[in-house]
Specification:
single chain, about 400 residues, alpha+beta, Heat Shock Protein 90, five-stranded mixed β-sheet, 5 strands, iron-sulfur, transferase, kinase activity, Sig_transdc_His_kin_sub3_dim/P
């Protein structure tokens, strides 16, 4: 409709100049045409025509007033009223829009009668009929669109409430399960250890043999509790890692791929990625999920490449996209994130493992998020076919996978 206004204005001006090139009104007609075109164009450029504000009504009033003057001077400009009908219906309240449409229709009829030079029933009945039909259709479509918007809003709100309810129920169920597991295993075991150690303390001097038996039983219970704790940690690890890190990354890429985004996965690990510690594999998987979520939600990219490279001294995860990019140097110090809230979480995970996070991007040139995690003796994967190194065990007792070894103090 906006384009048709400029087209009709140009056609009316050309028609007037062709028929009245030497008319004394010509300079005024040309000047007023330029004015109304500039006012209309400025309103579009500044977005006034699309916002229901006081400025929009002032803009529409100014356009209509200049158009009325043009139509009085040159009736051929009357057909510019057609896009003004719809502009008024879209921007004004219904009653005010109907009043404006009625006034515009009357001016069109008078202008056409003036051009015809005689009283023509077609000119008296045709334009009002067209205006009534067009207005009724527009108002009906607006009501249907409003009902659809309300329905969509209700569906979105219901879906969010249902998802939140399901998350709450799932969280409560998982908390209840863990609390029962901890109570029935770890808590009971710790209580038994406490009683055995207290009993050993009471008889330590009177019956050393019995005291040592109590301590031995407490140590056996501690070992059992350690096994249960390892089971909890294993159960809470990402489910995708059950098939290995490489397959887990491919599964994440498949979930993030869709109509607008294609994600490719490249793995160069010589088959050693699955021997990385669980916490490193879990961190790499979460980093990939966060980076791809940023790509999907903020970059507008059509393709992304996820690359996992396992070197001798570090493991590197790169996520590159061909999206809109950004300027890392323009970020203020202490910014909460880049293209969303995923970068701070990624940076925290990398920092916990002693690694580094690198952001490479420029506006319009895509972005690369690179996470490098060092393979220290505590985190590194063993070379293929080599025996486990006792010194390579992590200091945390929960990550000690040998049930016959006591955790280091």
């Amino acid at each position: 409709m906006h384009a048709s206004f400029f087209l009709l204005l140009a056609v009316a001006l050309a028609r007037f100049l062709m028929r009245h090139s030497h008319d004394e009104r010509s300079p005024w007609i040309v000047a007023l045409s330029v004015v109304v075109a500039l006012v209309y164009g400025i309103g579009l450029v500044r977005g006034v025509a699309e916002r229901a504000t006081v400025g929009q009504r002032v803009w529409l009033t100014l356009v209509v007033v200049v158009w009325v003057v043009l139509t009085v001077l040159a009736p051929s400009f009357a057909w510019c009223a057609v896009p003004l009908f719809y502009t008024g219906l879209r921007t004004l309240p219904t009653r005010a829009a109907l009043v404006l449409v009625g006034l515009l229709a009357v001016l069109v009829i008078l202008a056409q009668l003036r051009l015809a030079g005689r009283l023509d029933p077609d000119l008296l009945l045709g334009p009002p009929t067209v205006v009534v039909i067009a207005t009724a259709v527009f108002l009906q479509m607006e009501r249907q669109a409003a009902r659809q918007r309300r329905l969509i809003d209700d569906l979105i709100r219901t879906r969010r409430e249902l998802a939140a309810s399901e998350r709450r129920e799932g969280t409560l169920a998982e908390r209840q399960r863990l609390s029962m597991e901890i109570h029935d295993t770890l808590a009971q075991g710790l209580s038994s250890q406490q009683m055995l150690l207290q009993a050993a303390q009471r008889v330590w001097e009177a019956d050393p043999g019995k005291a040592r038996a109590h301590v031995g039983t407490a140590a056996s219970i501690a070992e059992h509790n350690l096994t249960e704790a390892r089971r909890f940690v294993h159960d809470l690890a990402p489910a995708d890692l059950a098939r290995g890190l490489a397959e887990a990354l491919r599964a994440v890429a498949a979930r993030e791929s869709g109509d607008r985004l294609t994600v490719q996965v490249r793995v160069d690990d010589d088959g050693r990625a699955d021997r990385l510690p669980d916490r490193v594999q879990s961190a790499l998987l979460r980093i990939a999920q966060g980076a791809l979520a940023n790509v999907r939600e903020h970059s507008g990219a059509g393709s992304a490449v996820l690359t996992l490279t396992l070197l001798d001294d570090q493991v590197v995860l790169d996520v590159a996209d061909d999206g809109c990019g950004f300027d890392p140097a323009a970020l203020p110090a202490g910014a909460s994130g880049v293209r969303g809230h995923g970068i701070p979480a990624i940076r925290a995970r990398v920092r916990q493992l002693g690694g580094t996070l690198t952001l490479e991007s420029a506006p319009g040139e895509g972005a690369v998020v690179s996470a490098a995690i060092p393979l220290t003796p505590a985190t590194g994967a063993r070379p293929r076919g080599s025996a486990p190194d006792p010194a390579a065990q992590t200091p945390q007792g929960l990550e000690n996978t040998d049930p016959n070894r006591s955790p280091p103090t």
